[in-house]
Write a structure and sequence with these properties.
- The complex is a heterodimer.
- In chain A, the strands form 2 sheets. In chain A, strands 1, 2, 3, 4, 5, 8, 9, 10 and 11 form a 9-stranded mixed sheet that branches. In chain A, strands 6-7 form a two-stranded antiparallel ribbon.
- By secondary structure, chain A is of the alpha+beta class.
- Chain A folds into 2 domains: 100 residues, Alpha-Beta Plaits (2-Layer Sandwich); 123 residues, Alpha-Beta Plaits.
- In chain A, strand 10 and strand 11 form a beta hairpin.
- Helix content of chain A is 23%, strand content 37%.
- Chain B has 2 domains: 217 residues, Cobalamin-binding domain (Rossmann fold); 260 residues, tm_1862 like domain (pyruvate-formate lyase- activating enzyme), CATH 3.80.30.
- In chain B, the strands form 6 sheets. Chain B has a 6-stranded mixed sheet. Chain B has a 4-stranded parallel sheet with strand order 15-16-17-18. Chain B has a 3-stranded parallel sheet with strand order 10-13-14, with helices on one face.
- The longest helix of chain B has 19 residues.
- The relative contact order of chain B is 0.10.
- The chains are: A alpha+beta, B alpha/beta.
- The interface between A and B is medium-sized, with 28 and 23 residues.
- The structure holds iron/sulfur cluster (SF4).
- The site of iron/sulfur cluster has 11 residues of chain B, from loops.
């Protein structure tokens, strides 16, 4: 029995690593008396998995985990009990029973982000629309991906254009941040981090963005069914 | 912000106590002067934190040493040090209290003050800065920190901290004057030491001539604070659960305080006397609450020598029964060298047999008698053979080098014991050898500590340490036997500070100015810088570390009464040199000098 559960990760808690999250949930299950299933073997651990971990420092309204229960618990009760123990920044918002078909990680293939940033060059909102159309006219944008292969570091060039669903400019918010909305590939079939997008934009368009001050929030995730982008079932 | 492990700084963990600053009368910032994950593993912090926060009108928040990357950022952006809970500046608190667990964290204390924008010297701080206090085991020799700390708490802190806060609260409501407050608590409370109210004079040879109060009505001897009834005292029913992995990632439950073995090198064994236990009922009640409130999967039974707990079997089996369905395990941090302890361990570690650690401390029987470590080779052989039979295969042995009267032969005993353990494994019939055998012998360099029988003993020089280390290292030629050792240079600095006097405070300050911090972390320890600091000040490190002190010398910490008398420590030192042992005082009082010792009724 699997509860597919959506949760938030906002505020300071965006700094928790994937491992921190696993530890937090492990304890919360125990504290909240959730009838979670344990793995067999020497060192039994609770059976749950978090899909598509976020980079450190990214907020999210759309984190997902699959929780395997040993016996039935009503999803409402599950959410209520968990939320009592969880910190404010991490709260479960939705949970439903699913048949286990595919893992979360293999299902999630698009993420919708809100990206907020400051720029020394763009003042007027129109300036950005202009930059964006220039960006859209580029047929290819390569970035360098670094990977560790054993002890060696390998670099490869990657065209990120196919990894971008769409980018729209939302104007300035009340804290004077420019706001972008971006749908980016995320998961096993290709992954583009919002910060990589911003680095590439900065390089191509010279927007004078303070890259240390880019605020990113994941708003939603989607699955790709034969080329169609769909809500996660 | 680009820093490593940001969850060190964010707080908001489970069981954190957030209080509205406007609704409290006194704000206490508790600081463990090391990085978050080390500090959060310290039981004392959890005790004081919950103790203070239980009071509706007082609040306690946490402060740790920012790691070097965070310090860089903070200095670059001029961000003052803040407390974790409210993120308010540390300098806006009423108290800043440090726990002193290790001498090599002292430069971090200076750094924390500086990052907080608080003047480092006590004399430069007026009423508008927090009162800076310190306690913990290293406070038994407070003098090396005397210029920086306004007030020391000597002994167990649970009762005295609240008393202090209450008096401060009263003063604050009438218009707080730092000097008046300090004079009042020094004159009226036990377990308090205000260094600025005393002065010291020196002899021509550099030793201490005299110490005297600067005003009348102050005690000449500072009595330590001790809690009599451990069941009745405050014990935390909850602990903050860090998000990040910490050094000690589990519930810590204190079974008792004190220790009766009387190992002559051990400061904790002397200053926490006499032994006082919590009852099984009380511990079970606490365990239940701690598991409920934390969700931790493991309870560690932590005390100086946990296997000594008189009801250990009953306690462990009750805990295991109670928490079996909830998959909560029990662990013992220290093991005695006997099969009884291993039996218990067998019960705890039902399936997984991780490594076993023993601490013979010295390589030869002669030397173990000198340090009064009451184990012999037969104990080790029995315990290790038993462990092998039960399926363990990795053994760690802890030793010290540089112990009083030590010869090369004693040092080589380290190698011999490690090889003996190896032979015990391989002399078993092949079909009975389980697992992948390894033995690790780890040696630390002995640091003589105040209030131990070895407080008069001169430490080995760095060269002597190295030649002893080389001796062992060169003799071990077996892949299954590993030898590790601590850096003698760190132990040398530790010895200087541990038995230092007021003049050592200048060294700490200078070393900090020159960039020393996190000295307990090998990657940050700057030995050359410490040497330069001492040289500039004309201070001779060997005067503090390597010199044998005379029984008649006025020691820098003699004005503190830790319980056991100086006379007892002298007798023990004399016996040590002769290789005579002293029995465990559970078997009958050995006359350490504690007035109305709580144990007399119990064991004698
Ligand atoms: S007074 Fe006697 S029984 Fe009490 S701690 Fe000292 S030696 Fe042990």
């Amino acid at each position: 029995m699997i509860l597919r559960t959506r949760f938030t990760k906002v505020g300071y808690l965006k700094y928790l690593s994937h491992l921190d999250m696993v530890r937090l949930f492990t304890r919360t299950f125990s504290k909240a008396g959730i009838p979670i299933k344990f793995s067999e073997g020497y060192n039994p651990h609770p059976k749950f998995s978090i899909g598509n971990p976020l980079p450190l420092g990214t907020e999210s309204l759309a984190e997902y985990m699959d929780v395997e229960l040993a016996y039935w618990m009503d999803p409402e009760t599950f959410i209520e009990r968990m939320n009592k123990s969880l910190p404010q920044g991490i709260q479960l918002i939705e949970s439903k029973m699913v048949e286990k078909r595919a893992s979360l990680t293999s299902m999630i293939s698009w993420s919708h982000y809100e990206i907020r940033f400051m720029s020394d060059k763009l003042d007027e909102e129109d300036d950005f629309e202009e930059a964006l159309s220039k960006w859209n006219s580029l047929s290819q944008v390569n970035i360098t991906k670094k990977r560790k292969k054993g002890k060696k570091k390998v670099e490869r060039q990657l065209d990120i254009k196919p990894l971008i669903g769409n980018i729209t400019y939302k104007g300035k918010d009340n804290e004077d941040f420019h706001v972008l909305s971006a749908l980016l590939k995320s998961g096993e079939s290709g992954n583009l981090k919002p910060i990589e997008l911003m680095e590439a934009m900065e390089r191509e368009l010279d927007l004078k963005v303070d890259l240390d001050m880019v605020m990113i929030k994941r708003l939603d995730v989607f699955t790709d069914e034969d080329g169609e982008i769909k809500e996660l079932a | 912000m680009k820093v490593e492990k940001p969850s060190r700084y964010i707080g908001m963990e489970q069981n954190m106590v957030p209080k509205n600053p406007d609704e409290v009368d006194v704000r206490f910032a508790f600081s463990f002067p090391d990085v978050y994950e080390v500090g959060m593993s310290h039981l004392g912090m959890h005790i004081l934190y919950n103790l203070i926060n239980k009071e509706p009108r007082y609040s306690c928040e946490r402060v740790f040493a920012p790691w070097v990357d965070m310090e860089d950022q903070m200095r670059k952006e001029s961000i003052p040090l803040f407390a974790i809970e409210s993120k308010d500046e540390v300098r806006s608190f009423d108290f800043l209290g440090f726990t002193l667990q290790y001498e090599m964290s002292y430069t971090n204390i200076l750094n924390i003050l500086d990052l907080a924008g608080i003047p480092i010297h006590s004399s430069d701080r007026e009423e508008d800065f927090p009162l800076v206090i310190a306690g913990g085991p290293c406070a038994y020799n407070p003098e090396p920190l005397w210029e920086f700390i306004d007030l020391f708490v000597i002994g167990e802190g649970e009762e005295v901290t609240l008393e202090l806060i209450k008096i401060y609260d009263r003063h604050k409501k009438k218009g707080y004057n730092k000097r008046k407050f300090l004079e009042e608590v020094q004159a009226t409370m036990e377990g308090i030491y205000v260094p600025s109210l005393y002065d010291v004079s020196y002899n021509d040879d550099g030793t201490i001539k005299d110490r005297f109060p600067l005003i009348s009505g102050l005690p000449e001897t500072i009595e330590k604070r001790m809690i009599r009834d451990l069941d009745g005292m405050f014990s935390p029913e909850t602990m903050i659960v860090p998000y990040m992995e910490t050094v000690h990632d589990r519930i810590s439950m204190e079974l008792f305080r004190g220790c009766t073995h009387g190992c002559r090198f051990c400061q904790a064994g002397m200053i926490y006397r006499p032994i006082r236990e919590k009852s099984v009922d009380r511990l079970l009640e606490l365990a239940e609450k701690l598991v409920d409130s934390t969700g931790y999967e493991n309870i560690s039974l932590s005390s100086l020598s946990s296997c000594d707990y008189s009801q250990l079997h009953l306690l462990i089996s009750s805990l295991m029964d109670r928490f079996e369905d909830r998959k909560v395990g029990v662990s013992l941090p220290s093991l005695r060298l006997d099969s009884v302890s291993i039996d218990i361990l067998k019960e705890i570690e039902k399936v997984r047999k991780t490594g076993l650690t023993f601490a013979p401390e010295a390589g030869s029987q002669r030397l173990r008698d000198v340090i009064n470590k009451g184990v012999d080779e037969e104990d080790l052989v029995n315990a290790v053979s038993y462990a092998f039979r039960e399926g363990w295969s990795r053994i760690k042995l802890y030793f010290m080098i540089g112990l009083p009267t030590e010869t090369d032969e004693d040092v080589m005993g380290i190698k011999e014991l490690a090889y003996l353990v190896k032979d015990l494994f391989f002399n078993r019939p092949p079909e009975e050898r389980k697992g992948n055998f390894s033995v690790t012998a780890s040696a630390s360099c002995f640091v003589p500590k105040p209030f131990t029988p070895f407080q008069w003993h001169g430490q080995d020089t760095i060269e002597e340490f190295h030649s002893k280390i080389d001796l062992v290292k060169g003799s071990i030629k077996d892949k299954k036997v590993t030898f590790n050792y601590h850096d003698p240079r760190v132990s040398y600095m530790e010895a200087i500070v541990a038995r230092g006097d007021r003049r050592v405070s200048k060294v700490l300050y200078r070393a900090w100015e020159k960039g020393c911090r996190f000295d307990g972390w090998s990657e940050h320890f700057k030995y050359e810088t410490w040497l330069e600091a001492m040289k500039e000040l004309g201070i001779d490190g060997s005067f503090y570390a390597n010199r044998n002190r005379d029984f008649s010398e006025n020691l820098p910490w003699d004005f503190i009464n830790p319980g056991p008398s100086k006379k007892y420590l002298q007798t023990e030192y004399t016996k040590a040199i002769k290789g005579e042992t002293t029995r465990d005082c559970r078997l009958g009082c050995t006359g350490c000098g504690i007035k109305d010792c709580a144990m007399w009724g119990v064991f004698n």
